[in-house]
Specification:
alpha+beta, ten-stranded antiparallel beta sheet, 10 strands, globular
Length: 311
């Protein structure tokens, strides 16, 4: 499928905030009918594979939480993922990547909630088959109390979990409630950047391999006679500013891959754009490209959420 920048904005909005149509027109500044039509096309072309509800666990269970990410390289990805999922209880997303060359950087990443981040990171790092590993704390959350739901809210959560694509009227019919009541309750229960106390999110599973004119890439860089750390610290403001102007962003707080390579990300719109950005990097102060990591697929993990909702 060929996409444009509006399609990409919709995909990224769905990845960040989930599928809840009340927020889409406001955030994207597009008519709802136009957004729905574009989403339908993304679904029909299997760029959006399916939708999966998941739980924003910190307010649901309460307590101190870390939302973290681990970057991993391993030849048997599915086997490693199965082992990790059996041990780590609150994994929310798995991202698959292609890395060139295959021994440099990560070929998948796992995003998860944790009450014991250091111990769980240690387990993942020591999992058989992991050849490269790096861990990051994305955010910290503190909720003193476990969220208490009324019986009606519990019923509504169960209905919404099993019918995440239903609109307010359809949900109201199933639970035999007034649509305005359902809308008001869902606005409190569904997580969004405007409702950080929400507990449920509907995320899309995305297959980026279906897109023929776009790729999201990470470049692994060094500079002539400079280490990756020196590349970040020496002339930092000018380097980062110029990279950003050309569509690159330094990620993961400038932490280095294998203690050597600076990792920057960018969107690539076709072959010519890839060549142009490659030339820019190689001509900028002796930068050298050692590897490229390309996003393949985003998968949502939600089995544990179903058990919480049903209890």
């Amino acid at each position: 499928m060929v996409i444009d920048k509006i399609d990409l904005a919709i995909i990224r909005h769905l990845e960040k905030t989930g599928l809840w149509f009340n927020t889409l027109p406001e955030q994207l500044k597009l008519p709802l009918d136009s957004i729905r039509a574009r989403i339908k096309k993304l679904e029909s072309e299997q760029v959006i594979l399916r939708y999966q509800p998941t739980i924003f666990i910190p307010p649901f269970l309460g307590g101190e939480w870390v939302w973290g990410c681990v970057l991993i390289n391993g030849d048997e990805r599915e086997k490693i993922i199965k082992t990790i999922c059996q041990k780590i209880p609150f994994i929310s997303e798995i991202w698959f990547c292609t890395n060139i060359p295959s021994n440099l950087g990560h070929n998948f990443s796992i995003i998860f909630y944790s009450k014991d981040f250091d111990s769980e990171v240690k387990f993942i790092k020591e999992t058989v088959g992991v050849s490269y590993f790096s861990a990051y704390r994305i955010a910290n959350y503190s909720y003193p109390l476990t969220r208490i739901f009324s019986s009606e809210e519990k019923q509504l959560l169960k209905i919404f979990w099993t019918n995440p694509l239903a609109d307010v009227e359809q949900i109201a019919e199933v639970c035999q409630k007034n649509p305005m009541w359902v809308k008001s309750k869902l606005e409190k229960l569904i997580w969004s950047p405007q409702n950080l106390d929400g507990v449920i999110i509907v995320l899309p599973e995305i297959d980026y391999k279906r897109i023929t004119n776009f790729a999201h890439c990470h470049f692994l860089l060094s500079a002539n006679q400079l280490s990756g750390q020196e590349l970040v610290s020496e002339d930092k403001s000018n380097l980062l500013k110029e990279l950003k102007t050309y569509g690159f962003d330094v990620i993961f707080d400038g932490r280095l891959v294998l203690n050597k390579y600076l990792q920057i990300e960018t969107d690539i719109w076709g072959f010519n754009d890839l060549i142009g950005k490659k030339i820019f990097l190689e001509n900028y102060q002796g930068l050298k490209i050692h590897g490229i990591i390309i996003a393949e697929e985003m998968r949502v993990v939600s089995d544990w959420g179903k058990k919480l909702i049903e209890n």
